[in-house]
Every structure is written in C-alpha cells, then in structure tokens.
Design goal:
Layout lengths: L15 H11 L10 H8 L3 H5 L11 H19 L1 E3 L1 H14 L7 H25 L7 E3 L1 H12 L3 H13 L1 H8 L4 H15 L22 H13 L20 H4 L10
Parallel strand pairs: 1-2
GO molecular function, one term: ATP hydrolysis activity
Pfam family, one: AAA_lid_9
Protein name: ClpA/ClpB AAA lid domain-containing protein
C-alpha cells in the first residue's frame, strides 16, 4: 500500500494516491491493503486524507496453540510437496522450539520455515541412507521432532538436539552441576538455576528474558566463571557467552552506544 504514496508524482502533479482518493471515497474502488507498522507510520499516516479512507485492522501474532493449529492445516500440502510424512509431534516441536529459540521473527512464519527445513533434512537423510544400503525400494521419509531440532540448530547455532535429549536431567541437577565448577556462591547459583527452571516450566512471561542478573564482587571471586559455567550447561559451550569490555563505556554518555540514547537525551561538544 505504501507504494501508492508518491507513485507517478513529477513536479507537483498528482500521484497514484491522490488519483485514487475520490474513487475510494465514492466506493467505486474497493481495496484491501497490507503493510507493516513501520511502513504505515512512515508513509500512510503522513497523508491524512488517504488514511481516512481506510479502516485500520491490526493483525496480531498468533499464539503457540494457534500456530500448531495452522501447521496442522497446511501439513498435508507439505507432505505432498516433499513426498513424506510429518508426525504430529514434529508440528508441536516446531511451534515450541521456534518460540523459544528463534527471535526477531513472528509466528507462524518462523514455525512454517522450520517445518519446511525439517522436511528437507528428513528427505535428504533418507536418500543418503538408501544410497549407503544400495536399496532400490522407495520408502517415505518421516519427519520427527529430532529433524526439527536439527533445523533449529542450523538456524541459531544452539545444539538443540543435545538440549532435548538431556534437558530433564540437566534441569533437575542444574544447581549441582554449577556447583561442580563454581565452589561457593550459593546465592548466585540458586537464583540463576531457579530462573532457568521457571522458564523451562512455562512460568516465564513471553517477550521477556529468562532473567537479568548483575554479579557484584571483587576481582577473582568467580563472577565470570559462573557465567561461563551457565553458558556451558545451557548451550553446551562457553563460546555462546557474549563478553563486552566495559572499559570502553566508562565515559559520560558512552553507554548510549551500547543500549541506545535515552529519551530527551541532549549532548554537547
């Protein structure tokens, strides 16, 4: 829709939006447009006359359960396209893992892409297995939750397959595993373990982090070691930890480079 704004405008002549306004007002043209919030604020809101001729309808992101229902509705199409069978457990896993590990994208697109990637993975693995066994019989590949986990691992770099296999054991004994590497620091270890357990149990709030902690203490007491141990237990590698040298942000206002400027922030030379 925002493409109408300014289309055909040359040296003050009417653009496509102004030409369509009378027809839209009289009902001779019936139009349904779709655009993002950013483009709407950037283009449509600037033209109040054009905005009045449309009724805004906000399309909200579906929930996890609604996404599962959507995936079940398109399941047959993907089965015919890839010539395989998709388990219902794989559909549930795609919705849950997409919501947990894939950020920056919305439901149901990210879950649908996971199912598509899992189908391609299962079909490729079936073909490789048939070639190794030198079998000519045609078998249908079956998409299972482990194929979805592999697709998530490729997208995010997080070893989701390993997390799913040992997740229950790791969660139950998370505090004990952290204590094996970090001696003492009982309060910090217990707080972190409880936050992770709440998140995995589904008691966390969508759109919010698992927890925000600020480890305070003298140099050498084990603050960084605890963060490394937590990264290893959750993501199977210390390399998943992002470290920032805060000595670069000690200047007045320099932290704005990291988290953005505060509202009504004024700077002087």
């Amino acid at each position: 829709m925002h493409m109408l704004i300014g289309a055909g405008d040359k040296w003050g002549s009417n653009d496509a939006a102004n030409i369509l306004k009378p027809a839209l007002a009289r009902g001779r043209i019936r139009c349904v447009g779709a655009t993002t919030f950013d483009d709407y604020r950037k283009y449509i809101e600037k033209d109040a006359a054009l905005e009045r001729r449309f009724q805004k309808v906000h399309v909200e992101e579906p929930s996890t359960q609604a996404t599962i229902a959507i995936l079940r509705g398109i399941k047959q199409q993907y089965e015919l396209h890839h010539s395989l069978e998709i388990q219902d457990a794989a559909i549930v896993a795609a919705a849950e893992l997409a919501g947990r590990y894939i950020t920056g994208r919305q439901f149901p697109d990210k879950a649908i892409d996971l199912i598509d990637a899992a189908c391609a993975t299962a079909k490729k693995m079936m073909q490789i297995d048939s070639q190794e066994k030198e079998e000519d019989t045609v078998k249908k590949a079956i998409v299972a939750p482990n194929h979805v986990a592999q697709a998530v691992s490729r997208c995010t770099g997080i070893p989701v397959s390993t997390l799913d296999q040992e997740e229950k054991d790791r969660l139950i004994h998370l505090a004990d595993r952290l204590h094996e590497r970090v001696v003492g620091q009982d309060e910090a270890v217990n707080l972190v373990a409880e936050a992770v357990l709440r998140s995995r149990a589904g008691l966390d709030q969508p759109g919010q982090p698992i927890g925000s902690f600020l480890f305070l203490g003298l140099t050498g007491v084990g603050k960084t070691e605890l963060a490394k141990a937590l990264a290893e237990q959750l993501f199977d590698s210390e390399k998943m930890l992002v470290r920032i040298d805060m000595s670069e942000y000690v200047g007045f206002g320099a932290v704005a480079r990291l988290i953005g400027a505060a509202p009504r922030w004024w700077t002087t030379d």
